[in-house]
Amino acid sequence: MTDWSARDIPDLSDRAAVVTGANSGIGYCTARELARRGARVVLACRSEERGSAALARLFSDVPSADAALWRLDLGDLGSVREFAERYDRERGGRLDLLVNNAGVMALPHRRTADGFEAQFGVNHLGHFALTGLLLPHLLRTPGARVVTVSSMLHLLGNVDITDLNSDRGYRRWLAYGRSKSANLLFTHELARRAAAAGADLVAAAAHPGYAATNLQAAGARLEGRKVRETVMTAATRVVGQSAAAGALPTLYAATAPGVRPDSFTGPRHLGWRGAPTPSPRASWTRDDRVSTRLWEASEELTGVRYAYTAKPA
């Protein structure tokens, strides 16, 4: 893999894309570069105010962009269903690229609208439901891709199938790591099931390394811990690479030719920063038994069943 950059993104004219969490950071940069290369992009954002500001910024950066803002709250399965129903009504037909980018990090303990632990509910279950509901559009589009953004912090812990919602005790960083492992297990199982069904679909994952976004300080901000928020923000600006650089592994997984199913792309230098390259991952994120159990549990919890993919033998 050479020093791939956004300049290497191929022409995406007539391609349809959805990017979750596109109002800022990596998600915004991903949506912007897809639009710059001609894709028709939906910015799927929880906050309409922040999403509107991002859309205006995108049109300023890319005046020719074909982009729209749609509301999506991944912490509310009702909102996820409304988003998918709107896609059915207004876009129908094809969906070339779904980028499951949105996420929360190291939050104080809280629940989603449906009662799930927030990090597991938003980072994994919301995207699991969204992908399943949009899957018919992906499967009718030759060469479609689902790219899910994980993290090197998945190494903090494997999912605990017996305690998915951290009911036996909540530790914010462990819960975050488990949710990011869930992202990789989801990618692994979706790739397996697509292959078993003979579907022309690539499920891949990526991570940004350490990128300067507002994600790291979000937990401190929610708790009103101003000093910690200030320290985290300053450290991120000093150490992290730019959001645009952090988006490159996602853009590579989404657009580069020859991306393999169940691949994991990250920055070259120690997984921290640099051009996209294949990234190491924990062995547990390719465990067929665990990925199957997580998939089945996710179907039960969300009520979303993937009728278009077969369970591997």
Give a topology summary:
Elements: E1 16-20, H1 25-36, E2 40-45, H2 48-61, E3 66-71, H3 77-90, E4 97-100, H4 118-139, E5 144-149, H5 172-197, E6 201-206, H6 218-222, H7 226-239, H8 243-246, H9 248-255, E7 264-269, E8 273-278, H10 288-302
Parallel strand pairs: 1-2, 1-4, 2-3, 4-5, 5-6, 6-7
Antiparallel strand pairs: 7-8
CATH topology: Rossmann fold
Q: How much helix, percentage-wise, in residues?
A: 40-55%
Widest sheet, order of strands: 3-2-1-4-5-6-7-8
Distance between the termini: 33 Å
Average pLDDT, to the nearest integer?
91
Q: How many helix segments?
A: 10
pLDDT < 50 runs, ≥5 residues: 216-221, 227-236
Rg to the nearest angstrom?
A: 18 Å
CATH class: Alpha Beta
- β-strand percent reads 5-15%
Number of structural units classed as domains? 1
What best-fitting shape do the alpha-carbon axes yield? globular
Q: Give the H and E element order.
A: EHEHEHEHEHEHHHHEEH
Major sheet description = 8 strands, mixed
Structural class by sheet pairing and helices? alpha/beta
CATH superfamily, by name, is NAD(P)-binding Rossmann-like Domain
Total count of strands: 8
In CATH, the architecture is 3-Layer(aba) Sandwich
Could you describe the 3D structure shown?
The chain is an alpha/beta fold. The chain has a single domain (11-302), classed as 3-Layer(aba) Sandwich (Rossmann fold). The chain has ten helices and eight strands. The protein has helices at 25-36, 48-61, 77-90, 118-139, 172-197, 218-222, 226-239, 243-246, 248-255, 288-302; strands spanning 16-20, 40-45, 66-71, 97-100, 144-149, 201-206, 264-269, 273-278. Strands 3-2-1-4-5-6-7-8 form an eight-stranded mixed β-sheet, sandwiched between helices. InterPro entries: NAD(P)-bd_dom_sf (IPR036291), SDR_fam (IPR002347). Belongs to the short-chain dehydrogenases/reductases (SDR) family.
